[in-house]
Amino acid sequence: MIEKQLKALALWAARWITTAHGHQPGKESAAGQRIYCANHTSHLDAVLLMAALPHRLRQNTRPVAAADYWRAGGFRKYLTERVFRTVLIDRDSSDLNPLGPAFQALRQGDSLIFFPEGTRGCGGSLQPLKPGIYFLARAFPQVQIVPVWIRNASRVLPKRAVFPVPGTCALHFGAPLSWDGQEDAAAFLSRVRITMESLRQPNDRPNGPR
Amino acid sequence: MTQEVQTIFGGLFVVLVLASALGWWLHRHRPSPATANLNSRIRAWWVMIAVGGLALVLGRYALFGLFAGLSWFALREFAASDPAGRPGAWYFAAVPAQFAAVIWDWQWVALLLIPLAGFALPRQRWLGLLLCVYGLSFVPALGQVELVLYLVLVVQASDVLQYLWGRAIGRHAIAPRISPSKTVEGLVGGVASATVLGTWLYYLTPFGPLGAMSLSLLITSAGFLSGLLLSALKRQRKIKDWGTVITGHGGVLDRVDSLCLAAPVFYWMVKAFWR
Questions:
Q1: d(C-alpha B164, C-alpha A131), whole Å
Q2: B151-203 pLDDT, tens per residue?
Q3: Is B40 in the same domain as B121?
Q4: Rounded Cα gap, residues A115 and A169, in angstroms
Q5: How far apart are CA B56 and CA B50, in angstroms?
Q6: B171-197 as b/e, with b when 16 or more CB fall inside 10 Å?
Q7: What is the nearest CA distance from A209 to chain B, expressed in angstroms?
């Protein structure tokens, strides 16, 4: 049962380091099943997003992460699999549907934290979105896709940094969207991308020179 | 908690009740974004005064804890938009180091550590430590609950009164490029009325009414300059507020900005003239 306490501790530490808190334009957010679709610049992103969610939504929200990265090493594996109940995706799988575990989780009724860029960026503009989010949206039309812009996380813990440095992060949640029934992958992805970028704040700055 | 401090908190309670009632009435009859902002500011004041009052009741160590926490929040906000980029993780160790030095009275460390760090740091990074850590650490360093209350009350009242006078009769902007909302009328009215308040509360200080009057004139002016300096830094960094933690006010640094310079001025004046 120590996993629960560890998770609470991690979220608490994340709040103290970053003031992680959510800004929700449009508070219609009934507790349906959702896929949070966020920009990815830091290992902290998923933790920050969970920290910013209200408790009742956080309970069954699980991050989606790369298996090759997060399954390595004992403590890291424990943290991802037991503490955060991460859905691990095999990026180099020869499987026809590498998103299998994510489909499984959505079928169980869980909500997901999804980074459609597929990897961490440097905090500048969004990288091209991978089509995974499109397949999820098409297979589960009842699940809301909630675009999120996470601000400043790359300043707190950028790629390759070991220690987080305190900073002010904020999470901007957009209005939920879903697949309209006929869009192809390119059209849907560009719609998601535009919504995510519209949430970006004017004074959002990428990680400057060190 | 002495009789005087209790009376002051009673007074603050009455002022807040009146302000909340007025804000509620205004928002009901003429709802606008301005009245909504006014109401969230007043609500935030309830919380801030409650937290400050609790720290005063709990005594000296709670005050150190409160200001170390504020300093941590402020430095975090300052560093988040630092044009020099991401600081090293050791940077924030300055907060516990400075406050430990002040608590245990290692005077030379407390006085010199951060100023001397200027030789080793980029300018803006040093400025962050000077304003958010060094400056604020002078508040609990005063040691006496009454003095801390006097300083914080007069400086914050001056901020609020400058805002109110500016909204009421402000016409001529002082530094339109730095802060369009700071006006000559607001400054004069705010500083004058805060000085009246400071003179009235002279019994909290070791001085007489005249001494308290000059002291409050000095700290409210220092507070104004401090706010102006931090506004200029905001404009340079192209941000509107330092943060979003206190609804209606912005960040913690937006709220404590006047104390950053007023606290050391007040501390040294008390040290110099208290016989």
A1: 54
A2: 999 999 999 999 999 988 988 999 888 888 899 999 999 999 999 999 999 99
A3: no
A4: 17
A5: 10
A6: eebbeeebbeebbebbbebbbebbbeb
A7: 5
Q: What is the DSSP letter of A53?
A: S
Residue A192 CA to residue A178 CA, distance in Å, equals: 9
Total CB pairs under 8 A between chain A and B: 55
Domain count, chain B: 2
The predicted-structure confidence for B78-136, as pLDDT tens digits, reads as follows 998 888 888 887 899 999 999 999 999 898 999 999 999 989 899 999 999 999 999 99
CA distance A47 to A42: 10
* Interchain CB contact of B87 with A (< 8 Å): yes
Q: Are residues B139 and B39 in the same domain?
A: no
Task: Look up the ipTM and state it.
Answer: 0.71
pLDDT band at A28 (very low <50, low <70, confident <90, very high): very low
Local structure of A195: helix, strand or coil: helix
Indicate if B32 and B121 belong to the same structural domain. no
CB A144 within 8 A of CB A32: yes
Domain with B84 in it:
59-273
Query: pLDDT band at residue A30, thresholds of 50, 70 and 90?
Result: low
CB spacing of B86 vs A164 below 8 angstroms: no
Q: Do B253 and B175 share a structural domain?
A: yes
**CB-based contact B203:B179 (threshold 8 Å):** no
A39 touches chain B (CB under 8 A): no
Does the CB of A166 have a partner CB in chain B at under 8 Å? yes
Q: Using the beta-carbon criterion (under 8 Å), do A19 and B85 form an inter-chain contact?
A: no
On chain B, the residues whose CB falls within 8 A of the CB of A149 are none
- Chain A residues whose beta carbon lies within 8 Å of the beta carbon of residue B79: 165-167
Residues B81 and B42 in one domain: no
pLDDT in tens, B35-83: 888 899 999 999 999 999 999 889 889 999 999 999 999 999 999 888 8
Is the confidence at residue A48, as pLDDT, over 90?
Answer: yes
Contact B89 A164 (CB under 8 A): yes
Q: Does B171 touch chain A (CB under 8 A)?
A: no
CATH placement of domain A2-13+20-158+167-198: 3.40.1130.10
Among the partner-chain residues B83, B89, B245, the one whose CB lies closest to the CB of A19 is: B245
Q: Are B107 and B205 contained in the same domain?
A: yes
Q: Are residues B26 and B64 in the same domain?
A: no
Residue B76's closest chain A neighbor by CA?
A: A167
- CA A197 to CA A201: how far, in whole Å? 9
Does any CB of chain B come closer than 8 Å to the CB of residue A165?
yes
Both B110 and B197 in one domain: the answer is yes
Which two structure tokens, joined as six digits, stand for A144?
Answer: 């809301």
- Which residues in chain B are closer than 8 Å to A203, comparing Cβ atoms? 81, 237-240
